[in-house]
């Protein structure tokens, strides 16, 4: 089969790779129909390199069941599915408590095991979920990032009537805007430095948009009549992680979803907001809960099916997998603008 394999920093190759095979009774082989680029993929491509040289990359995907092990009972060959790429050990103290996102041996396919930038991918049966007929493959390829966002929201105290601010309007932030609506937020503030992304945010439900390069963030927030109950950091920028602490009202919450790939410096005045405003700062990792892979996945599939979670406005490019090396290079080196990229193997 063809796959995108990462050999080193900015060394991604489209090449022939052995097709996965059934090796135990709970294996599932999936023919990949759609697979998306995640922000963590671009950071590993640009800054970190592979865990293992030549590893098949990627972890957000959907597809059709190609083959199943003899003990797989909830799936049939030909089923349309998505896959949870997170592999938990199911044996550590956190797994035994159903806290799978805290598993001490947790990893995601595309790192230690082959991922989804390929014609076929293999997962344990418990990691594979069927998708309804009215959820297309491109949408289903974004169940994983949506589940990651939902996991964070379940950790907050968001309730109907809340005002929510989302800082960073990439794919995660645009999903967060929609999850804020699902959780009952009546006012949503979108913050970014890209007017194109802010326009998408408006279409997906943001009531206010702020370009923090073009105007003072503090003045723009002060001009909004509602107080912010929950502020969500979804950019993972060293600058926004400090800024987001200044947004919530006293006793409010900050949800950290973005992953920074460099050291962070927080100004004293920003850090003091945690203390003086008695903020609750919440970290969130992955998108898992009990029963595995969790309510985040079932809820995402439900709301995609109902039309409450839209991903089509987020997707800018649908490309052949063979365009992967060129696309990654252009993306990380800012040679071309992309929103969400979906590959079709």
TrEMBL record:
Required cofactor(s): Zn(2+)
Keyword flag Zinc: yes
Molecular function as annotated in GO: L-iditol 2-dehydrogenase (NAD+) activity; zinc ion binding
Keyword Phosphoprotein: no
The entry's keywords: Metal-binding, Oxidoreductase, Zinc
Domain Enoyl reductase (ER): 8-343
Enzyme Commission code: 1.1.1.14
Broad enzyme group: oxidoreductase
Family affiliation: Belongs to the zinc-containing alcohol dehydrogenase family.
Protein name: Sorbitol dehydrogenase
Organism of this sequence: Mammaliicoccus stepanovicii
